[in-house]
UniProtKB/TrEMBL annotation:
Family annotation (InterPro entries): MAM33, MAM33_sf
Gene3D superfamilies for the chain: Mitochondrial glycoprotein
UniProt name for this protein: Mitochondrial glycoprotein
PANTHER family, per database record: COMPLEMENT COMPONENT 1 (PTHR10826), COMPLEMENT COMPONENT 1 Q SUBCOMPONENT-BINDING PROTEIN, MITOCHONDRIAL (PTHR10826:SF1)
Domain of life according to the entry: Eukaryota
Length: 224
């Protein structure tokens, strides 16, 4: 008798928990749906993206569910491949209460920066350069210059965040200034310039937005 009464007492608690859980799931699904609708409404591909793709000569390759973006272009004596992963603009940490406007301006975080690789090789070979670069505020900085006869393997191993291993060339800033300038001009001949930096930053934001909307859709469908 006591056991039966205990079971009867615990059953409403379980039902209440299940009801509460169901309500919270619905609220979450609704919030995700609202967020998805809002982001669909505000999303618009910038005209500069399509303009760059029309005029640059690069072909773009990507997967909708992946952050990797590849640009490829063929010249008479070289093939160029540019790869980068999309990255959302950094958001400043919460500001300290009472912080002055002047301090906020001084401590303003840098704009979006993106690491990317530029592969330049002779057609039908596996030999050539890999320039490891980053773009920040529509400007390109070269970090390392790699030369290899095994590009297919070495291009998968970025210098950024890497310790030890195979020699990957000198740091760009350690090269003679004249060599730096000439290598920069060499890259510009293949379309690696400020226009490319602007495109990478714009496209990264655009694709990250699309990836975020896909994430919202999948999560909403899961909890719905």
């Amino acid at each position: 008798m006591l056991v039966r009464q205990a079971r009867m007492l615990t059953r409403p608690i379980f039902n209440s928990f299940r009801s509460f859980s169901s309500i919270s799931h619905k609220r979450l699904a609704k919030a995700l749906e609202n967020e998805l609708e809002y982001d669909h409404k505000i999303y618009k591909e910038e005209d500069e993206i399509s303009s760059y793709m029309r005029n640059s000569g690069f072909k773009l390759f990507e997967r909708e569910d992946h952050t990797l973006v590849t640009l490829q272009k063929k010249f008479n004596d070289a093939e160029v491949e540019i790869t980068f992963h999309v990255k959302a603009p950094s958001v400043d940490e919460a500001d300290e209460p009472g912080e002055s406007q002047s301090n906020l301006e001084q401590d303003e975080p840098p704009g979006i920066y993106i690491d990317f690789q530029v592969l330049v090789k002779k057609p039908n070979t596996n030999t050539g350069f890999i320039f490891e670069c980053l773009c920040l505020d529509q400007e390109i900085t070269v970090a390392n210059v790699v030369f290899s006869d095994n590009l297919a393997n070495i291009k998968r191993q970025s210098t950024f965040g890497r310790k030890g291993g195979e020699y990957r060339g000198p740091q760009f800033v350690n090269l003679h200034k004249k060599v730096q300038n000439l290598l920069t001009e060499y890259l510009k001949d293949f379309g690696v310039d400020d226009n490319l930096a602007f495109f990478i930053e714009m496209y990264s934001i655009d694709k990250e937005h699309r990836c975020y909307m896909e994430w919202l859709r999948h999560v909403k469908n899961f909890v719905n």
